[in-house]
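>> received
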Amino acid sequence: MRALHYLFVTFLALFAANAAWADAPGALGDGPHLAIRLVAESATPAAGRDVTLALDTRPEPGWHGYWQNPGDAGFPAKLNWTLPKGVTAAAPVYPVPQRLLVAGLMNYVFEKPYAPLVTLHVPAGLAAGTKLPIKLHADYLVCTSSVCVPESADLAVDLTVGDGAVTPENRARFDAWRQALPKPLGGAATFQVADGTLRIGVPYPAGAPLADAYFYPTSTGIVDYAAKQSVTRDGDRVVIATKPGAGGTGSLSGVLAIGAGPNGQRGLVVEARPGTVAPAGNVPAEAPPSGALTATLIALAGAVLGGLILNIMPCVFPILSLKALSLARGHLDERSARAEALAYTAGVVAVCVGLGAIILGLRAGGSAVGWAFQLQDPRAIVVLLLLSVALSLNLGGLFEIPTPQFVNRAGGAGGAFATGALAAFIATPCTGPFMGAALGAALVLPWYAALAVFAGLGIGLALPFLALGFVPRLRKLLPKPGMWMETFRRILSIPMWLTAIALAWVLGRQVGTDGIAAGMVAALAVALLLWWGGLRQRKGKAFGTVALIGIVVVAAFASGSIARLPKPGVATASVGEEAFSEAKLASLRAANRPVFAYFTADWCLTCKVNEKAAIETDATRAAFAKKNVAVLVGDWTNGDATLGRFIEAHNRAGVPLYLYYAPGAAEPQVLPQVLTPGMLAAL
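>> returned
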């Protein structure tokens, strides 16, 4: 009967449309009422890689298009592609729709601009410059609340095989469109029909926000679309109760809307298997999450531990050691020592919270960024390179760091605050144990809880110096001052030089050998200016305003010049490895092959250590080859919105991320952020 009802209503709608055209020409407008543009994220996709196409769709006011499952009425867009040989197009991925109830029929529609995304795979082996004409014929239905009109569109876009470069404008547009897409759930859901009620149990953290929740089924026949839904929290799950449909078997798929975001409704892709779903308690989904405090405290503890571990990194340890040596000189009283410790902590926390706020703001605007996002920009790398060179020369005794007058007026506390801010800023390339999971959790917490987690990271980073400032017995354990301190200071310049070398290598990976050369020239210019300022200091004069201005000019000119350099081609994976893509992962899993996927960046110290010590060893490669394990590598060095969203879906704010997909397993095993060869072989 529902099918007959649908046919009858559709017939009446089309009849009304014809009558409107016959009786009042032009009353519905000239059309199209659903304007569609075909937009490519990159006009020069790389051979062997994927490129995303968007169907930028804009309904006229009062009209709507349909979701992939239109509901009780309407039909989804039918896409007929004409593609070059070897090029394939995946099914479109839609954003979360809206609901429209008409005459007792539930429709899943879009009344505002929306953009389904299609992944286009470009075959390997195509020469650069090869033309790829892409054509699409789309048939679709567009309706008002009372009138429906079938329309069609012929769309085309011309691509050329190249380096896969994406313009900043396109990156921003596609980031916003992707932000509107539902994300992977990351857990197995279950559904059950019992006593005339359909219950769907969805794993969902008790501390995660949830508002205006609604389940949009993509499977047909299992859910009664027009029936009312009850969505209830029950610990670490959400239970949806509604009326079952008239038919349908097998698994149940759909999208769970979880609240409004900056680019529309946010949602999770749900794949539910038949099973037993216990009834939920009586906690409404819109109520404040009772587990938010627990989730925040757990993430906060992880952030503090992760920040504490950052102190042993080669770029942070020298700065911490210098501050500790300043206490060892013994010229500070109890009150001054505590004041410096608090000021140092304030500087660290201010930078960590500031970076956290920027990350949350960019993500709210649709960008898929995570911790250390600024290192994906070569301009930030060259600034860090020059800073590392300057600190190395300072530790080597070439000059003393001049402090501005406003810092001097604040006394030792002003210098301690600046040192803490410097330590936090230069520690951003690092992600260690506990830290990745904690910052990943912060991204799904309310903003105020997320900022508390970032503050916890700063507290952990500042904790050793904070303890020295407040515990006199710890200060007494420090060695007595003497000439050895100058020698130790020179030794501390070695890890800073290693940091500078690593940053120069990253710069080369991002913008090629020309980038390294430009960075080295800038470093030489800065070194000469610092040498000149150091000469003035040894004569009893101030460092010199001219030298300071010169350093700023060099840094600004170098950053601007390096930003204009072309990026090198996509790096090839090591032997036995392939570049990560979700399509490649899906095909390997469909073939029942075990998969080890890891996500890395050249500026991530933890990533590089793990790769040399555990992943790229003969023992690991032999173990993987023996069991036919496929290895996929996601390179996040220059930023990649698709990788960023995949990393985020696994509760990480950045790299490293290590996943192992066992054959037949529903979900991957998330491995620790510090790997050992034995750990990988044991998989």
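>> The longest strand covers residues 131-143.
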